[in-house]
Amino acid sequence: MKSSTAIFYMIISVIAFSLMNAVVKYLGNFHAYQIVFFRSIGTLLFTVPLILKAKIPILGNNKKWLFLRGFFGVISLTCFFMSLNYLAVGTAVSLRYTSPIFAAIFALFFLKEKIKSIQWVLFLIAFIGVLIIKGFGADVNTIGLLLVILSAIFLGLIFVIIRKIGDSENPLVIINYFMVMAFVFGGIMSINYWKTPNLTEWLLLLSLGFSGYIGQLYMTKALQSHETNVIAPLKYLEVVFMIIIGAFWFDEIYNPWTLLGIFLIMFGLLYNIYLKQKKS
Question: Are 95 and 152 in contact (CB under 8 A)?
């Protein structure tokens, strides 16, 4: 598949995930476990019927890798949703998407994808951006920072596992494993934290599954079709959307240091895309 098609898929994914993140932030009075639970329900309403209709083997071919993708996905998603209680939404998203750095490093060891010297420099620039946000950004909570970095590490592993699976699995099967595990985990863990939604909250909670499904489907298709260290950094476009949403919807304030840090993160990773595209 052409890289332009894979990039188009990733952009669709980014828009969908941005909408989902905004709704999660808005529903901050619900515990992260309950958010994970509803996030999974909405997506399963799409994946299960589509898998059955297409007569796709629901357990897939690579059960070990599918299980790990689902397990790491639940950890990453839960940690990220928890971090939104401590961080501005734009800051949380920008910090989470240090994940391409971890993805590239994991891909180096597990997939033998090479990392050039200039890429290491660009990754360092992005990491300096993280340090600036933490050191000089406005109200960067340490617990929130730890949660979102942990989320990023597991997201990096997810990128590599999906790339490892490649075209051997239907994207619906990959997503379904993740959502079934999120459904079980979120359902059990939310029992002690359950809050009954009103009608509007029901609609918003269920919408998480729809936007999450679109985001997950097109992210999976993109990662299956091109190199991890080219496609994964496109997730940084989500930062732009979330800063705008955070400022206009949630009245969040981003001081110059925070914006500088976010800029360095985006510069480091997006310039990496440019270099890879130039060589291809």
Answer: yes
For 82-95, write each residue's pLDDT tens digit: 999 988 888 888 88
Q: 167-220 pLDDT, tens per residue?
A: 788 888 988 999 999 999 999 999 999 999 999 999 999 899 889 888 877 877
Question: Which of these, 219, 208, 238, 218, lies nearest to 15 by C-alpha position?
Answer: 238
CA atoms of 165 and 65, how far apart (whole Å)? 7
Q: Which helix (H) or strand (E) holds 185?
A: helix 171-189
| Contact by Cβ (8 Å): 162, 232 | no
Residue spans of alpha helices (H) in 111-236: 117-136, 142-165, 171-189, 199-225, 228-231
pTM of this structure: 0.84
Exposure of 208 in the CB half-sphere (CA atoms within 13 A):
25
Instruction: Measure the CA–CA gap between 202 and 24, rounded to whole angstroms.
Output: 12
Rounded CA separation 63/65 (Å) = 6
